[in-house]
Amino acid sequence: TTYKIAAIPGDGIGVDITDAASQVLNTLAQAHGGFSFDFMTFDWSSKKYLERGWYMPEDGMAQLKKHDAIYFGAVGWPDVPDHISLWSLILPIRTSMNQYVNVRPTRILKSVTAPLAQLQKNRKDLDWVIIRENSEGEYAGQGGITHGHGPNAIATELAIFTRVGIERIMRFAFETAKLRPRKKLTMVTKSNAQRHGMVLWDKVFYEVAKEYEGVVEWDKMLVDAMTVRMVNKPESMDTIVATNLHADILSDLAAALAGSIGIAPSSNLDPTRSCPSMFEPIHGSAPDIAGKGIANPVGAFWSAAEMVRWLGKGDLDKTADQLMEAIENVSENGIRTRDMGGESSTKEVTDAVCKEIEAI
Amino acid sequence: TTYKIAAIPGDGIGVDITDAASQVLNTLAQAHGGFSFDFMTFDWSSKKYLERGWYMPEDGMAQLKKHDAIYFGAVGWPDVPDHISLWSLILPIRTSMNQYVNVRPTRILKSVTAPLAQLQKNRKDLDWVIIRENSEGEYAGQGGITHGHGPNAIATELAIFTRVGIERIMRFAFETAKLRPRKKLTMVTKSNAQRHGMVLWDKVFYEVAKEYEGVVEWDKMLVDAMTVRMVNKPESMDTIVATNLHADILSDLAAALAGSIGIAPSSNLDPTRSCPSMFEPIHGSAPDIAGKGIANPVGAFWSAAEMVRWLGKGDLDKTADQLMEAIENVSENGIRTRDMGGESSTKEVTDAVCKEIEAI
Ligand SMILES: CC(C)[C@H](C(=O)O)[C@@H](O)C(=O)O
Ligand SMILES: CC(C)[C@H](C(=O)O)[C@@H](O)C(=O)O
Question: Where on the tree of life does the source sit, at the highest rank (chains A, B) (predicted)?
């Protein structure tokens, strides 16, 4: 099988780590022998936008649709307002490609020192999968500004929750929890203060929960109290489901608690498989270290492993695990970038991971 | 001077800790000699609501307005949906009483063990004041549900940002930062994804910032990345300003990182002083330990200290500091509730703090 991958390196360190990821993915395919990748690179970036005035061409989505998966680096650059760059690239891809689920596995990789004292002693206490609603909620994109330039300016953000949207994310979350050893789901909400949309969120959750009675254990948290529980009782949670914005915040916190934002992966999935899914590290474009060759490629590799898992539909799980093992071995051998306390360059880590894959 | 205080114990441990706070406040006034408190207690609670069908009487706000300050325990009870209880009591008070600022000081009290390894070594690295916009944004209360009972249900939450609302909170934040030793303000936003209201938030921030050039140093963070910075570089921040929802989440995280949600205070301020301001610990009603006499009263005492500070308009700062000193001494002497690793009851901690106040 040859998997067609649309690679969008984007901005800043997105370029460095997408290169690194494709090198690792090719090595993995070669070592395995049973499949290969056909990468097509799309130069949709802020730099190009400043040159030519657009991020994606008009048929951009149609081009992406011809691929089996999308690999995304990062977007965001100081010379372009963030809301322009993001709403021209990553956010419309998520919604146009029906990627209504964003999955963010979080655990403390071997050799990583986590910042919480408890987790320095008990690394395994933190083992979460955060399921983020990825198509509506606070990222629906609706709202506007009136009297924008005067003293009476008023601006709105409209969060939209639909029964269809909530039901499908809850079902995905329960299915994920069901397959995990602990079979446990924590649902996050803010329905005490947000009394319209979030109340529907709760209601649909309770309905779907009934279908999983006796199969998946669940509890419910307010988003503010959730941060406290993540810090104090990481071992009490497993699968977590939250809205687009809440999960955005909680998953960054999760990555920090797991030791580094530079290693955290995310998968934007269309569970119906009618569109290609998209895989991206959760870190940003990091303009301050862009082009210096020192970006941490681990989040990119972990995202690549999740892409392999998704493409294989169960057949390549072992291969994805091998990539994860290679990442952890290299890190344990001290070959790490600076953000992880090491001194290695992106290239050194990448080459070491490739060598490790060949050796496994 | 006699300060008229409207006390609303509310639900669960709100009752225990409001009792404790009034005992401590009376002791403080007696020890000082120059002022006293006249408490009027309002039995507005979920229990009463279940009996009589309402939380506040129709003239509730008018009654509150006759006081110099409001002391609030907690609201929320399992038998009443949270969005009913909160929108019947705490949230309308905040908006009706023009309390457009919520202030949440956060530091690690002596004798508290914080969960981050870095902060166990360097307690003083965490010293923040979180300024929360308290009157609009995601808590504007607008939105609704259509087709609520069918498969096409759609619900919305409308966040509203006005220039007036943003400008006044930014100005308060800069004024707060200006008086702090480090003179530093971190502004939090999510204007990359929330491209209408949050863009106005940013714009007004930049305008107000110009007035403080050379006086207050500032930087800007996205709310998701902010959680990472709070975990990794607590020492890099001082005063923080954020929206109603963002600051709600970040201040709970802050309290957890500072060692306990049970000790964190909050002040709901009307800086124009046309209405009474309200003081409440940030913890909730904790139904699981309500009535057991084991609730941690420290958050309530710290909130009481902030109330004294506010009422004194600068004249009672030393008295408020004495209360804080008493709290810390008692805690250092090992008289702590369970959530802080001790074995003392609410009453034991309260009596010890009173004794300490008399001794100082
Ligand atoms: C880049 C940005 C729009 C994005 C988001 O907020 O979704 C990022 O923070 C993420 O978590 O993927
Ligand atoms: C009780 C609830 C409405 C409240 C809020 O969300 O504002 C609480 O979490 C707080 O932080 O004061």
Answer: Eukaryota
Where do runs of H (alpha helix) occur along A181-243? 197-211, 223-232
Per-residue pLDDT tens over the stretch B28-81: 999 999 999 999 999 999 999 999 999 999 999 999 999 999 999 999 999 999
Instruction: Identify the three-state secondary structure at position A259.
Output: coil
Which residues surround ligand 1 with Cβ inside 6 Å? A 86, 90-91, 248, 282; B 192-193, 224
Considering only CA atoms, give the Rg of chain B.
Answer: 20
Which amino acid belongs to residue B256?
Answer: A
On whether the B1-100+264-360 domain is CATH 3.40.718.10, my answer is yes
- Distance from residue A322's CA to the centre of ligand 2 (Å): 45
How would you write B61-118 as a 3-class SS string?
A: HHHHHCCCEEEEEECCCCCCCHHHHHHHCHHHHHHHCCCCEEEEEEECCCCCCCCEHH
* A 81-110 residues inside an 8 A Cβ radius of B: 81-83, 85-87, 91
Give CA separation, A243 vs A81, A223, A232, in Å: 25, 10, 22
Measured between alpha carbons, how far is A277 from A269 in angstroms, rounded to an integer? Answer: 5
Give the tokens for residue B196. Answer: 């209408």
Quick one: which of B39, B29, B64 has its CA closest to B357? B29
B262's enclosing H/E stretch is none
CA B120 and chain centroid, separation: 24
Position B229, amino acid: R
Does A224 contact ligand 2 (Cβ within 6 A)?
yes
What does the alpha-carbon distance between residue A233 and residue A240 come to, in Å, rounded to a whole number? 14
Locate B164 and state its tokens.
Answer: 């007036």
DSSP string for B118-141? HHHH-GGG-EEEEEEE-SSEEEEE
Instruction: Enumerate the CATH 3.40.718.10 domain ranges in chain A, comma separated.
Output: 1-100+271-360, 114-258
Q: Which ligand is nearest to the CA of B192?
A: 1
Q: Which CATH class is domain A1-100+271-360?
A: alpha beta
What's the pTM?
Answer: 0.97
Give me the pLDDT at residue A334, please. 94
Query: A108: number of CA atoms within 13 Å, CB side?
Result: 21
What is the rounded distance in angstroms from the CA atom of residue A117 to the CA atom of residue B142?
Answer: 42
Q: How far apart are CA B156 and CA A195, in angstroms?
A: 9
C-beta neighbour count of B275 within 10 angstroms = 18
B245 contacts: CB under 8 Å, gap ≥ 6: A190, A193, A194, B137, B138, B139, B159
* pLDDT bracket for residue B110 (50, 70, 90): confident
Ranges in chain A, pLDDT < 50: none
Q: How many Cβ pairs closer than 8 A exist between chain A and B?
A: 219
Q: Which fold has domain A114-258?
A: Isopropylmalate Dehydrogenase (3.40.718)
Cβ of residue A253 closer than 8 Å to a chain B Cβ: yes
